[in-house]
Amino acid sequence: MKMKVALTGNEAVAQAMKQINPDVVAAYPITPQTEIVQFFSSFVANGQVDTEFVTVESEHSAMSATVGASAAGARAMTATSANGLALMWEVLYIAASNRLPIVMPVVNRALSAPINIHCDHSDSMGARDSGWIQLYSENAQEAYDNLIQAVKIAENPKVLLPVMVMMDGFIISHALENLEVIGDEDVKKFVGEYKPDYYLLNVKNPVTFGPLDLQDFYFEHKRQQAEAMENAKEVILEVGKEFGKISGRNYGFFEKYKLDDAEMAVVVMNSAAGTAKDVVDELRAQGKKAGLLKLRVFRPFPHKEIAEALKGVKAIGVMDRAETFSDFGGPMFAPIRAAMYDLNAGNTIVDYIYGLGGRDVVPQDIKKVFEDLEAIVNKGKYDKLVTYLGVRE
Amino acid sequence: MSFNRNFGQGEGRNSAEAVTPDKGWKDLVRGGIIPTAGNAESYKTGDWRSRRPIWNEDKCIHCLMCWRFCPDVAIITDDGKFKEFDYDHCKGCGVCVSVCPTNAIDFVDEDMASDEDKQKNEQV
């Protein structure tokens, strides 16, 4: 059963959580994520889910309680944004290293200071090496779809890693959108029942989680984690296909938009991809070979697949909604450039940092990027490696 | 009355599954999870010891104060009587030496313990 509904991003995510019906949700409110937890707690209060809802005093506690619940054998979730995610920092690693399949929506918001509640990707990008799988969503539909798939990816025995699902704060989280939701029964069947092999509440076979792990074993456990992340690639594709069967929407590592014969292309994540597609259409109408790659899976990083998809593109503009303060562009730029290195295909790759702190990115901005890329195609070289797009000079 | 060492014998207990440093990453349980209860027994902590308790049978009244106070389970008893130290696990803290009401336990530097002492107390 499928149904067309009008929901905001936060409502869509809360709806997905309701259908997943996790055993435990421990969460703390933070703008712009607050509504997710608020809507979900009303589902709990109304008896629409079987979830034990744990109110906590901070995000550090939210993630800690979620880790405890997951280790105990529960399907556990939380949600956060920005500084909340930053406060979870040490526990993010503990969740991943203990191999707990927690699922967490992250509503992207800028990190302080100065304080800002609007969208950029500095929060989730800061957590990119914490061992979590990261799925990014262009709109409410994708956020809903990704969240349901996340459960199945996380709990796959070949993976057993936590997954965070991102959507843009306010732009998506608070904007009303038409989307298609799947029936409760279909979601229930799709995610299945969580049956952990090792869990703390199994009194018949007591186990220990998180023991001291020194020089003799720690390295081996990290190697296992790396392997799980590699396995996740295959599982993400399998789950994406399987989800296509119940929803009609197939998911892979990224979406290629008019990319196959493109001479110039942008690489972009989340909501700005929608704006950029309009610009690509406009340029195509003018006979220009413009294309777009919208990255969905940032961890694991599908480096081979990205390189293959961008091989024939002469000028590539990576669009980062976060700064790394490394003097070498945003967090997507360096790995994409590195992924292209082995192909030796002569692509020119430059970076655009845009939209920090919720600064709007409009078609005119993206047209400017394509003008630069066109000049690179013609000249065979770039003027500027990293450009701050839309900042006042 | 009998004092048996039956701590942590959960179902599925199997010392053979204990992790050892010769195992590669593919053979270890993910994330360092310890899947068998009671396998601390197979982790020999006796080599941390710098001082060794030595039992004097003639002074011992078998009150088992040492058994009660041992923070590990390194006092082995048999039918309500002191039998021996478990030197594989005794870390040499000396609590048994302190609590013994008849001073029946000597405490000597590990390096100084005579071969005879070692032999006398290690009957396994």
Structure characteristics:
heterodimer; A: 393 residues; alpha/beta; Rossmann fold; 2 domains; four-stranded mixed β-sheet; 13 helices; B: 124 residues; alpha+beta; Alpha-Beta Plaits; two-stranded antiparallel ribbon; 3 helices; 4 strands; disordered N terminus
3D architecture notes:
The complex is a heterodimer of chains A (393) and B (124). By secondary structure, chain A is an alpha/beta fold. Chain A has 13 helices and 15 strands. Chain A has a six-stranded mixed β-sheet with strand order 9-11-10-13-14-15, sandwiched between helices. In chain A, β6, α7 (140-155) and β7 form a beta-alpha-beta unit. The model of chain A has no long low-confidence stretch (mean pLDDT 97). The model of chain B is unreliable at 1-16 (pLDDT under 50). With 124 residues, chain B is an alpha+beta fold. In chain B, 14% of the residues lie in helices and 15% in strands. The two termini of chain B are 23 Å apart. The radius of gyration of chain B is 17 Å and the shape is elongated. In chain B, β2 and β3 form a beta hairpin. The A-B interface holds A 97-99, 160, 198, 204-211, 213, 216-221, 223-225, 227-228 and B 8, 10-12, 19, 21, 23-25, 28-37.
